[in-house]
Specification:
The structure is a single chain. With 229 residues, this protein is mainly α. Helix content is 72%, strand content 0%. Helix 5 runs antiparallel to helix 6 and helix 9 runs antiparallel to helix 10. The longest helix is centred in the N-terminal third of the chain and has 37 residues. It is elongated, with a radius of gyration of 19 Å. 40% of the residues are buried.
């Protein structure tokens, strides 16, 4: 948190930083959880069915062990647990970082998990590094969620313009009532932090007009009213 040493200009700066920090804290765990849910729902279809040959048996086994470590880390929520998922252990279990050096869907998926581990640990630069390496063409359901996670990581790095652009792209790519309203609202809140209420209003109105079957629709009028004052 920035200190208020300038009696005239600092209060506004500190207030903006407070809003940005509040945004990151509010969505950090939520977005990671949302991405994980999507991954767990479809990873069987996009990964295991294409990796049953003997040549991929070892990679499949190591990925499975790393995923188990990640699931445990999500439960305990400790840095040590995420480090284990990232780096493996002394028993020879490979972590996501080593798997991410590989090719194909296994390597791509490992990049995603590595990014999520780092994001959950608050290491946003490392999170961005691996999420940016994820091949967004891999799957039409996972890709929007990954973009949304990346947008939140950019917000954590205070790259707010980049965060807004990425979240808007994620919403467009998802184009569904589950993820799109969430990403549009997040982008709108960042714009509010930047004092761009008219731009935020456009995104909130998009949620109201297009995603009226979403859970967020019930509360969108409150957002609209807030930026219309």
């Amino acid at each position: 948190m920035a200190q208020n040493n300038n009696k005239q200009g600092a209060p506004e700066v500190v207030d903006t930083l407070s809003k940005n920090e509040a945004f990151v804290l509010k969505y950090k765990n939520a977005i990671i959880a949302a991405v994980v849910v999507v991954i767990l729902a479809i990873v069987g279809g996009i990964y295991w069915n294409e990796h049953l040959t003997s040549s991929h048996a070892k990679a499949s086994t190591e990925m499975s062990k790393a995923q188990e470590a990640f699931a445990q880390a999500m439960q305990t929520n400790t840095p040590e647990a995420f480090e284990l998922a990232l780096n493996g252990d002394s028993l020879g279990h490979t972590g996501f970082l080593a798997l991410a050096d590989g090719s194909g869907k296994a390597g791509n998926l490992a990049k995603l998990y590595a990014g999520l581990c780092y994001a959950h640990m608050g290491k946003m630069e490392d999170a961005a590094k691996y999420l940016e390496k994820f091949d967004l063409k891999d799957d039409q359901m996972v890709s929007p969620a990954v973009l949304g996670a990346l947008g939140n990581v950019y917000a954590g790095l205070d790259q707010l313009d980049k965060a807004v652009a990425t979240l808007k792209k994620a919403a467009e790519k998802a184009d569904n009532n589950s993820l799109s309203p969430q990403f549009l609202i997040q982008a709108g809140e960042i714009l509010e932090c930047q004092g761009q209420k008219s731009e935020a209003l456009k995104l909130y109105q998009q949620v109201k007009e297009k995603y009226f079957k979403s859970a967020q629709y019930q509360l969108i009028d409150e957002y609209i009213e807030r930026v219309s004052e």
